[in-house]
Specification:
The chain is of the alpha+beta class and 64 residues long. The protein has a three-stranded antiparallel β-sheet. The radius of gyration is 12 Å and the shape is globular. The termini are far apart.
């Protein structure tokens, strides 16, 4: 899977409608894509992984 753009936590938060705190909780529970380290203080998410997660969430909502 090609990563495409890199997104920082604020961009991910805006895109998925969850606070950074909620995002990190979901990661801890294994329910959200893990971030990728760019450096000691910089973490990013691949745009493609976030988009895939959103599609998965929409599919789960349709099955309810």
């Amino acid at each position: 899977m090609e990563p495409g753009r890199f997104l920082r936590v604020d961009q991910v938060s805006e895109r998925v409608g969850r606070s950074p705190r909620q995002i990190y909780r979901l990661i801890a529970r294994g329910e959200f894509p893990r971030q990728h380290r760019q450096s000691y203080k910089v973490s990013v998410w691949y745009e493609s992984e976030i988009a895939a997660w959103q599609v998965d969430q929409m599919a789960k909502d349709l099955l309810r």
